[in-house]
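Subject: two folds for Thursday's group meeting

Dear M.,

Sorry for the delay on this. The cluster queue was jammed most of the week, so I only got both jobs back this morning. I'm pasting them in the order they finished. Each block is the input sequence followed by the predicted structure tokens. Could you check whether the formatting survives your parser before we put anything on slides? The first protein is the one we discussed after the seminar.
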Amino acid sequence: MTELVMLVWHRFPSWLAGKEIPLDHVCLPYDKAAHREEYPLMFSTNNINFNAKTAKIVFPLQYLDLPCQRSSIELKGYIEQLPEYWFKRAEFEWGNRSVSNDCLRLIELSSDICMVSIAKQMNRSVRTLRRDLSAEQSSFMKLKAQHLRDKAIHLITETNTSIENIANILGYTEASAFSIVFKQWTGSSPRNYRQFFV
């Protein structure tokens, strides 16, 4: 759960400031995990160091002086969305738009989350969408995986839906296949993850 704690320490101050705090690098005190490709997506940096002596996130000193932009009412709404909010790749800066964020938003809203359907809704060809996402160091598969991970975490921590039903909701034919993928995403099995938040 080390990465979860570090993720909170990054996402919460960023939310308070209304601006994502850019990380110079992230240090993790263990070997590269099976789900290591998720770390750049989680922390918005490709500078991930494994086997470090201590776990830490490093960012420019001036960001410690950012003023708090959030009200107590907003904080109440934020708390009500936990822990799901921690796993969302939020747009911290108001008005900040990107192809990746627009694509992810459509994936979250659409019942058909195939690339052909999403590209059509964005008035792009599949080839153009793939190129535009690549220019932002993203991909449709990464965004789809992020959406499925966020939805899985929400269902596991916020509902009593069985693991088998969650697997079906997310499109997996077997709960065992879903469990393997979920462990790659979070480092924990769905059942252990649920127990941690009970």
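Second protein, same layout:
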Amino acid sequence: MLSASMDMLEESLLKKIEVMKKIEEENEKQKNLLSNPDEVDEVAFDKILDDKGELIDQLLKLDDGFQTLFNRVKEEVGQNKDSFKEQIKRMQELIQEITGRSASIEATEHRNKKLAEEYFSAARQKMNFSRQTSAAAFNYYRTMNNFKDIPPQFLDNKN
């Protein structure tokens, strides 16, 4: 029973690393997409966000499962450390890799957040400029339509 539980813990860590690799790939796609703000494909951007959301949900489930299983076996593992010495060492290495990837993902997310903020700021400025241009055009149109109703101010009455 304990050996199977230890295998499941190790497998959970390996799955977590695979999910983290996929998140890193999605972050790279997001960075590439946002690096050229004039050509951002908003549909692709939304898909990346959806995919990352699903991956994060998977990570949370893996974390919950790992923690639940670990809480059930930690006392027994502590009593039998020598029996699982190699597996514990492998799991510690996996946890170190997860910690490194987690820090890397967090840094990339921070950089991508800045790129997204810049993109959305530029998009807002374009919308404001467009709105101002439309308002100016509308005012000009309205003024010109009213202008035709103004009678001539100077009439030449010489015949």
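Two things I noticed about the second structure. The chain has three helices and no strands. The chain has a mean pLDDT of 85.

Cheers,
T.
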